[in-house]
Design brief:
Elements: E1 4-8, H1 13-24, E2 28-33, H2 36-46, E3 50-53, H3 59-69, E4 72-77, H4 92-117, E5 118-127, H5 140-160, E6 166-172, H6 178-191, H7 195-204, H8 214-224, E7 236-239
Parallel strand pairs: 1-2, 1-4, 2-3, 4-5, 5-6, 6-7
Length: about 250
């Protein structure tokens, strides 16, 4: 019997490839995104998927979507932003609040709504980051938000364990997505180098010599939502081609 899957931030990057993986497994997949154009493009690419416009920072809209969808088997809380700002940048406060609203509050709203409608024995995967365990100058807001997602994941895993609902996180390193390419361009601008040079230097620091592909992360998420991971909850899994180990 097909499972009912909801993926936030499902119109591109990791979310899009995760939707593809679940569709190929025969599940009924819903993707949500605040970008209507990307949702339409994802629908055309994936075909058998239901799309929902959603801004995860709007708690009332999040609650309404979960009520509309009813019983879910899986939630992948993937929606997020990656913005850079050092403490002395003029826009640092704006970046802080925007990042926390999307990356932390948005995940919290989704988990809070999901616990009411997720079936017993269901699964939740949150998408944190390698910077949820490590740090990088100029990424204060992003790093703090992704650390917080890991703490939230652990707490919710304990709360929902009596219902057999498993809650885990994935922590990707550099993933070749539109978001990381935009982040590379900003990093290159700040470093005063070309984007290609910046990306080559980043890849040079990765032991396996490449960035993670979105489908790599999708495969890990699909595993964590499968019966093969039935004994796993409250964990965070690095997927970074060896870029970090803790």
């Amino acid at each position: 019997m097909p499972r009912e899957i909801l993926i936030t931030g499902g119109s591109s990057g990791i979310g899009l490839e995760t939707a593809r993986a679940f569709i190929e497994a025969g599940d009924d997949v819903h993707i949500a995104s605040r970008n209507a154009d990307k949702l339409q493009a994802a629908k055309q690419e994936l075909g058998d998927v239901t799309t929902h416009p959603l801004d995860v920072t709007d708690q009332a809209a999040v609650d309404a979507l979960f009520v509309e969808l009813g019983a879910l088997d899986v939630l992948v809380a993937n929606a997020g932003v990656c913005l850079q700002a050092r403490l002395d940048d003029a826009n640092t406060d704006e970046v802080w609040h925007t990042t926390m609203d999307v990356n932390l509050n948005g995940v919290y709203y989704c988990l809070k709504a999901a616990q009411k409608t997720l079936v017993d024995g269901g699964s939740i995967v949150t998408v944190s980051s390698g910077l949820g365990k490590n740090a990088r100058a100029g990424y204060e807001a992003y790093t703090a938000s992704k650390h917080a997602v890991l703490g939230l994941t652990k707490c919710v895993a304990l709360e929902l364990a009596p219902r057999g609902i498993r809650v885990n996180a994935v922590c990707p390193g550099w993933v070749d997505t539109p978001m990381s390419r935009a982040d590379s361009a900003e990093g290159a601008r700040r470093a005063g180098v070309e984007t290609d040079e910046f990306r080559k230097e980043a890849i040079a620091g990765i032991p396996l010599g490449r960035m993670v592909e979105p489908e790599d992360v999708a495969d890990l998420i699909a595993f964590l939502c499968s019966g093969a991971a039935r004994a796993i909850t409250g964990q965070s899994y690095n997927i970074a081609c060896g870029e970090f180990f803790n």
